Hints:
Layout: H1 34-49, H2 51-55, H3 64-72, E1 84-87, E2 91-96, E3 99-104, E4 107-111, E5 118-123, E6 129-135, E7 141-147, H4 153-168
Antiparallel strand pairs: 1-2, 2-3, 3-4, 5-6, 6-7
Amino acid sequence: xxxxxxxxxxxxxxxxxxxxxxxxxxxxxxxxxxxxxxxxxxxxxxxxxxxxxxxxxxxxxxxxxxxxxxxxxxxxxxxxxxxxxxxxxxxxxxxxxxxxxxxxxxxxxxxxxxxxxxxxxxxxxxxxxxxxxxxxxxxxxxxxxxxxxxxxxxxxxxxxxxxxxxxxxxxx
Length: 172
């Protein structure tokens, strides 16, 4: 069997292939592909070159960063639905109407409710670890552990997570 190597071996033209088999740094829900990131960077650079023209208005360039700052800020206040939030010195879990967001140190990922197949909670038999695992339809799971201040918080966190799942998660 022959194998072509060198500059005469060109990739197929068409849509870029994404996934962990082609990009080792690709993790669904956590990172996008390198090509996607480069395209977003190019768009951001083009918009940053002249924000007044990108907006299509005759507003001075000084007023545009204020509008962008408002967009980049926190999301609007919740509409009164249940929210689960737990954090320790390294990890953070937030579940609300938008979905589930996990953060560990500097890494963050967000799952919207249609992207989630199941959410599992578990408490440690010994110690103060509360584990939340997000399962996706493609049979991947993303666990995160939160260290509770005391074991008495486990019941409160379980009740709060159940309220969020009952309100927003629809099993099919």
